[in-house]
Amino acid sequence: MQKPTSKPTTHNALSATELKTLRLKANEIRRWVIEMVFSAKSGHIGGALSIADVLSVLYFKELNVDPKNPNWDGRDRLALSKGHASAAYYAALALRGFFPKEELLTFRKINSKLQGHAYKGVPGVDVSTGSLGQGICVSLGMALAAKMDGKKHRVYAIIGDGECDEGSVWEAALNAPFRKLDNLTVILDRNEFQNDGSMYNILDTGSMEDKFSSFGWNVISIDGHDMQQIVDAIEEAREAKSKPSVIVAHTIKGKGVSFMENNGSFHGKPPTEDEFEKAIAELDEARSKI
Ligand SMILES: Cc1ncc(C[n+]2csc(CCOP(=O)(O)OP(=O)(O)O)c2C)c(N)n1
Ligand SMILES: [Mg+2]
Asked: What is the DSSP letter of 81?
């Protein structure tokens, strides 16, 4: 994992109880990801596990949403632009109360709402995604619409580093600062892997911090598994004026299950029964230490 190039300032330190809650929720999200993909016998694990901590902070601290009224007009919007990481997204939404947790085991099954890529028919999902490079563009449109309508909600997009091979990401990156969309926060899951393995063997994109900075973004670089840094970054982005923010979250693909970490083969492969049992045992062990 690359080191973040800086560290956001802490204004609101998490209490021990808050930190514990966020860690427990992230652990629960990871456990569901494993259960869901194992039960479906298909799905993307690595990139779901890498964003579990970010999703925990978003859904259990930062996002202004109402699970009882998912389409409430004043809600913050989110596009999971790396839509293949849907298992973690659905798990976070269910844990937050948008729909019953039991439904999670219908993931990727016939007639389920919980299809393999994020689907707007699921309560709490604002944008259908899956074709990489599009969710960030939709989030730009939603941020622009909010500005034009004088609305106060914020718009978030979670994008992948492999996804940044898509030209449309850079069209959005070019446009958002010009429009001064300071209501937009993009979280870039910098796990250094994509579909076919390490980014360094496929397309080494260099420093994402430098690239977004040169396009005029407010850039915040963090360890994407450090709850306090995630909170600090989201709060710093909320304060930024006249510029969109990108949080470059340095993460580990497969984070939380030792044999899946930095293991490209778990991008889109379900675990075997043996791997499933080992993964659950590791996560339960980790939970007992939180
Ligand atoms: C337009 C498009 N091209 C190709 C794919 C197939 N695909 C699915 S995931 C993926 C790799 C994405 O890498 P990254 O954004 O880094 O995701 P993560 O590492 O977080 O899983 C690709 C190429 C797709 N979903 N959409
Ligand atoms: Mg990646």
From this structure: S
Alpha-carbon span 285 to 290, nearest angstrom: 9
Using the mean position of ligand 2's atoms as its centre, give its distance from the Cα of residue 151 in Å: 32
Distance CA 137, CA 73 (A): 20
Does the global pTM surpass 0.90?
Answer: yes
The reply to whether ligand 1 has any atom less than 6 angstroms from the CB of 251 is no
Tens-digit pLDDT string for the chain (290 aa): 888 888 888 888 999 999 999 999 999 999 999 999 999 999 999 999 999 999 999 999 999 999 999 999 999 999 999 999 999 999 999 999 999 999 999 999 999 999 999 999 999 999 999 999 999 999 999 999 999 999 999 999 999 999 999 999 999 999 999 999 999 999 999 999 999 999 999 999 999 999 999 999 999 999 999 999 999 999 999 999 999 999 999 999 999 999 999 999 999 999 999 999 999 999 999 999 99
Number of Cβ within a 10 Å radius of residue 151: 15
At the top level of CATH, the class of 16-288 is alpha beta
Query: Residue 1 C-alpha to ligand 2 middle, in angstroms?
Result: 11
Give the 3-state secondary structure of 254-289: CCCCHHHCCCHHHCCCCCCHHHHHHHHHHHHHHHHC
Ligand 1 in reach of 123 Cβ (< 6 A): no
Contact between 246 and 212 (Cβ < 8 Å): yes
Q: For residue 51, which atom of ligand 1 is closest to its CA?
A: 20
For ligand 1, atom 22: residue with the closest CA: 195
CB-based contacts of 111: which residues, under 8 Å, 6+ apart? none
The rounded Cα 148 to chain-centroid distance in angstroms is: 27
- Kind and range of the H or E run holding 159: strand 155-160
CA of 150 to the centre of ligand 2 (A): 35
Q: Which residues are found with C-beta within 5 Å of the ion, ligand 2?
A: 160-162, 191, 193-194
